[in-house]
Amino acid sequence: MKLILADAFEAFNQYSGWIIWNLFLAFIPFVLSFGLYLRPSRKRSGLWWFCFIIFLAFLPNAPYLLTDIIHLVEAIRADYSIWITTLIFIPLHLLAIFLGWEAYVISLINQSYYLKKQGANKFIVLSELSTHGLSAIGIYLGRFRRFNSWDLITQPNILLNSTIDDLTTKKPLLVIWITFIILIIFYWLTKQITLGTLWRIKQLFYDLDAKN
């Protein structure tokens, strides 16, 4: 038993240690989206814009977890027992990917709700597409260039030059476009499921209140 636990701990550190940190980064924009988009006031103060910039800077960290599927593949290929693979690697990694992606979807749903509340319904689709585009660029810069969100402040010149190079080079641009399309498709599907689930939960509570 001790040997199994030791192997499980070693396996987690080697292939799954990223989960807590990456989820923390993914949930920063998720939490900010509630303060930015669901608050009762319509005024946009300097603090609001500051939080909005942080929201945009960290938002790609949420869909970025989709690319962490490579860690799951590496873990499965590693020489660990079937128990560690099926009871630790697969459920843990899939849960982390799901939570990160759902955080992204809900953040954009909150953003769309805010635009609707502002009477800017016609800009909802454009805002979603723009966000997907920026996220696709951010995912590429994070996965292949190994940049982080805070590099916008610590090394903006290097980040800007790398972004321009990638957007004007055929292969990186192709990867970014493919990522953009995947985000659009996955987001649309997950958005329908999430909104449907939220509606059912709301309806359930409404029915319970009506009975009482």
From TrEMBL:
<feature type="transmembrane region" description="Helical">
    <location>
        <begin position="172"/>
        <end position="190"/>
    </location>
</feature>
<keyword id="KW-0812">Transmembrane</keyword>
<dbReference type="InterPro" id="IPR009793">
    <property type="entry name" value="DUF1361"/>
</dbReference>
<feature type="transmembrane region" description="Helical">
    <location>
        <begin position="82"/>
        <end position="102"/>
    </location>
</feature>
<protein>
    <recommendedName>
        <fullName>DUF1361 domain-containing protein</fullName>
    </recommendedName>
</protein>
<feature type="transmembrane region" description="Helical">
    <location>
        <begin position="123"/>
        <end position="142"/>
    </location>
</feature>
<feature type="transmembrane region" description="Helical">
    <location>
        <begin position="45"/>
        <end position="62"/>
    </location>
</feature>
<dbReference type="Pfam" id="PF07099">
    <property type="entry name" value="DUF1361"/>
</dbReference>
<keyword id="KW-1133">Transmembrane helix</keyword>
<feature type="transmembrane region" description="Helical">
    <location>
        <begin position="18"/>
        <end position="38"/>
    </location>
</feature>
<keyword id="KW-0472">Membrane</keyword>
